[in-house]
Amino acid sequence: MRAPDSDQPTPPDARARLRRPGDALPDASIGTVPILWHHAPPDGSAVVADPIAILDEIARVGYEGTQLDDGLPEGAELRSLLARRDLGLAEVYAALPASPSGLGQDALAIGRERLRLLVEGAGDILCVALDGSPDRDARAGRAASDGTPRLSDAAWAELVDVLHTLADETNLAGRRLAFHPHAGTYIETPAEVERLVTTTDAQRVGICVDVGHFLVGGGDPVAALERLGDRVTHVHLKDVDPIVLARLSEGSLSGLGEAVDQRIFTELGAGMLDLMGVLRVLAARAYDGWLMVEQDSSWGPPSEAAAIGRRVLAHALATLGAESASQMLPTQ
Q1: pLDDT, tens only, 61-79
Q2: Is 127 among the domain residues?
Q3: What residue numbers bound the domain in which 233 lies?
Q4: Which residue, among 241, 239, 297, 213, has the nearest Cα to 37 in the 3D structure?
Q5: For the residues 182-191, what does the mean pLDDT come to?
Q6: 96 part of a folded domain
Q7: Which residues contact 37 (CB under 8 A, 6 or more apart)?
């Protein structure tokens, strides 16, 4: 075998190759969510997902940050793991238990514990959502229809109080809170998102628009981003398979859980998401937060799906940047 040539160039880090001068949204950071590596593969075999190996893959395929993964260490050890891979802790996810009558008794404690992990890990965003529940999972994709269980007025009031408390504590710690509307929970539909937006303090509670969950909930994520403007402080980029969504919406799937098993969330660029429309709205207001590419499950190897998503996003940002540059050229 031929000996390696020491004069051969060293391939640049993928992150350097995927972020080029002239790209749109130059001040936004690009991360991904480790859930992709944790979903059971199609053959039914067990998941073997070492969280540290996942960090290596996240960095290798070109991402700059991650959501906190189960099984990772805390505090200084976590910071060291991330720093050695030049990764940021983009977010810590906090799922608050809820029922139509109100939040679980431990909801605030759960939020505070997740905030502690965020602060000690030197992370940026406390991404808060309601936890999934069987009654709303079964109505995912058609939750706007009659018969869907919903939060009572008292539950809404309690949720707003808890979010304001968590937001104040998060802001005091120098971080930001963003609420994540999520399919299969009590805040999924455009009407529920609107109520959340109008009943919380815009200066305290940011909104995480997960464009995939917004599509599942029956909304238009491009229109939502336009309307919400600076209220959007965090973004999850997630594409949706329209065929699986149609089956979910008509009730031929048992709920969101089965839809995820059927890969309702697909590689970025392979579904019904208007990715360019989303990015144009964000670029128009010079969005400088995180763009988190997320895919809950994949038919192929997780790292392959993550790499596809990152490269599709790179192409979209380069295309949008070129469009903007051409519009600034003087006319003859």
Answers
A1: 999 999 999 999 999 999 9
A2: yes
A3: 27-315
A4: 297
A5: 98
A6: yes
A7: 47, 49, 54, 57, 302, 303
